[in-house]
């Protein structure tokens, strides 16, 4: 599984509409409205590298109201949630 974190700049008045459209794109698992340099953060999870282009360049970037994107590709996942789930399954035995 490939994961990309996409920072999205948009007109502040259009944040809810842009978020709703981005959420419906294939490969987008969730969208967050955030504080800071970006207006929205989209989590993209796909199986193949080519699908990143479909989801980001051909999808998110073309949503009306999206002014700019910056994409961060994840190398590894470090998550206490994943560890808790593993322990709950008895994998620590």
TrEMBL record:
One of its GO terms (biological process) is response to amino acid. Pfam families: AsnC_trans_reg. GO terms for cellular component: cytosol. Residues 6-77 form the Transcription regulator AsnC/Lrp ligand binding domain. GO terms for molecular function: sequence-specific DNA binding. InterPro entries: Dimeric_a/b-barrel, Tscrpt_reg_AsnC/Lrp_C. It comes from the Bacteria. This is Lrp/AsnC family transcriptional regulator. The lineage of its organism: Bacteria, Bacillati, Actinomycetota, Actinomycetes, Micrococcales.
């Amino acid at each position: 599984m490939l994961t990309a974190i996409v920072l999205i700049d948009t007109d502040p008045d259009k944040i809810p509409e842009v978020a709703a459209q981005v959420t419906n794109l294939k490969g987008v698992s969730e969208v967050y409205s955030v504080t800071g340099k970006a207006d929205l953060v989209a989590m993209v999870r796909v199986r193949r590298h080519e699908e990143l282009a479909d989801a980001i360049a051909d999808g998110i970037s073309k949503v009306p109201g999206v002014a700019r994107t910056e994409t961060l590709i994840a190398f590894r996942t470090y998550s206490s949630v994943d560890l808790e789930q593993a322990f709950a399954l008895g994998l620590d035995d």
